[in-house]
Amino acid sequence: MTTNFVEYNDSLFRYLDNSPTAFHAVAELRQQLLKAHMTELFEHERWQLDKGKGYFVIRENGALVAFILGSKEDVSNGFRMVASHSDSPCLQLKPRADVHSPPYLQLGVEIYGGPLLNPWFDRDLSLAGRLCCVDATNNLVDYLIDFNRPLLTIPSLAIHFDREANNGRAIDKQKALPPLLAQILSDQLPQFHEILSVQLLKQYPGIKLQTILGFDLFCYDHQKATTLGLNNEFIASGRLDNLLSCHTALQAITEAGTDRNSLFLCTNHEENGSTSTTGANGAFIDAVFSRLAPDPELRQISLRNSFLISIDNAHAVHPNFRDKSDSGHDIILNGGPVIKINANQRYATNSRSASLFKLLAAEAEIPVQEFVMRTDMPCGSTIGPMTAARLGVETIDVGAPTLGMHSIRELTGSNDPYLLYKAISTFFATENIHRRG
């Protein structure tokens, strides 16, 4: 187990900076799992699984399941399961992205998920995602690209033209959000697909020129993850929700050893409902479990002996808006993992799953906090409830305390990622999953 939180945060920063999109986040997970000597599987092939070994499978670039078949356990003993999601709220390019506004070239965007939009203005934005190309043999090939430099910006309208700008001005999403890409200096209008082709060949110089048929491209803030504060007590970065949790699960499962059954589920599309082939409301985890336990009765025994920790960032109390939080549940940065509770099952936590996590935290010697939303405010949700319902597995929702959630840059405590990691590592190491006598 990593014992130095500064070293741990350095690893987290590398993961955040290398993961501008869900596709890149999963690709980075893949590289780290391969380094940990886990074997990659493919859904279109038969699987030969052995006890005492680790495996992983990726679906459509955006979702991943990694698991270890314990050498000292059978599948019927259940799995220590952790779940997170790879996507974050952002701006996604439209299929025909070119917006010509002479003398400028802009890009048309849609809103992915539920981002805070105002922080996207006047930032140094870049562009990354997936290209779908056809090669010389008429086969489809996917490539991940990342311009990885300040490329775009969405200029604000000067206050001289909008004197009410600081008084709650609404954003015209269709009109105000297209980012500025280039200034056209000749009669030759650059086509966006041509720009993508140049970037493709720059990143993959050994390939023959491919025809780009489609893309999933996303704007992101190019500023890197960093610590800040008088004593470096805070972490600021884009996509802390929920790549912080993905990194936590990755570090914990790659250091878990091979004695016990462990599983890490990373899904896509949480920020817009999870209903997709790679989302938590899809059948990906069912498909994997049907191979781990082909016999239906064995599968049910395994799942009822399993326990799932759904990890997704939690709201801390904002010092400027304390009245927005429940007065009896003051969540603070650097206060440790947050157990998330909701009476209407927006979170999957119940008294037993919460108690089990508190026991794990006590063994890890870390503090725990408890969050509920104000009674007069609606509560968000996670992949926890739908995964629990789909699998029939006992579940808890936890996460690192966060300020500015869904902003282009979010804030957590410098100690919080490491404290969460210690809790998950302790969970993967525990012998009696449910603490049954």
TrEMBL record:
- What single Pfam family name could you report for this chain, choosing any that match? Peptidase_M18
Q: Which metal ions or organic cofactors does this protein require, according to UniProt? A: Zn(2+)
Q: Does the keyword Metal-binding apply?
A: yes
Instruction: Give the Enzyme Commission number.
Output: 3.4.11.-
The first-level EC class reads hydrolase
Q: What biological-process GO terms show up in the record?
A: proteolysis
Which keywords fit this entry according to its UniProt record?
Aminopeptidase, Hydrolase, Metal-binding, Metalloprotease, Protease, Zinc
Is-annotated flag, keyword Heme? no
SUPFAM superfamilies according to UniProt: Aminopeptidase/glucanase lid domain, Zn-dependent exopeptidases
Cellular component per GO? cytoplasm
A GO molecular-function annotation = metallopeptidase activity
Q: Which NCBIfam families match?
A: PRK02813.1
In the record, the note on similarity to other proteins reads:
Belongs to the peptidase M18 family.
Protein name as annotated: M18 family aminopeptidase
Source organism:
Desulfopila aestuarii DSM 18488
